[in-house]
Amino acid sequence: MKKRIKITNEEIKTLLGAKPVEFPKYASQIINLANQNAQGTRPAIVGQMSELIQEFTGRTLKEWEKWYLEQHPDAIEKATQKITEMIQNFKEVIDKIDEEMIEQWVRDLVIVKTFIGLRFQEAILSKVANIMNKPYRLATAEEESKGVDGFIGHIPISIKPETYKSKKFLNENIEVKTVYYKKVKDGITIDIEEIVEN
Q: I need a surface site. Which of 73, 103, 171, 185 has the fewest CB within 10 A?
């Protein structure tokens, strides 16, 4: 007898009394993507599931369904409506997506976003220099070895993630001002307090 066995998700459903549901190929992935965009199953709409399942005192799937729908009678309908609207948005845009658009998307990902992801330090220097109305330049390899990423005017600048604030190291030879950054969903935020504090 095997000492290690596997129970598939579909088998778990069957063992717990759920009827198997068949979706056409890709349908589940598309609905899932639409739900991520529409946020149809967020706690504000369907409740905090991890808490609800703890409150539930029944044992069977049927009991859970009855109990849940008593607690959140409109949740399934609201979530369905939000996801349906997003699927409609997908349908409207899908015919506009052609090979040329896909190539632009791939090029943007592989070329542009990769470059920006690796070279955003220069963008930070450029932005801060612009704010301070001073020229900037990237550090040489020798300057980089001393912890300098670039200069704004004559001020040596180090560019570090915000997490470095709690563990900042003092540089030996050069007084370096630090610009801290944090990556956010639509770009980066920068903290220039050390540079403009004087």
A: 185
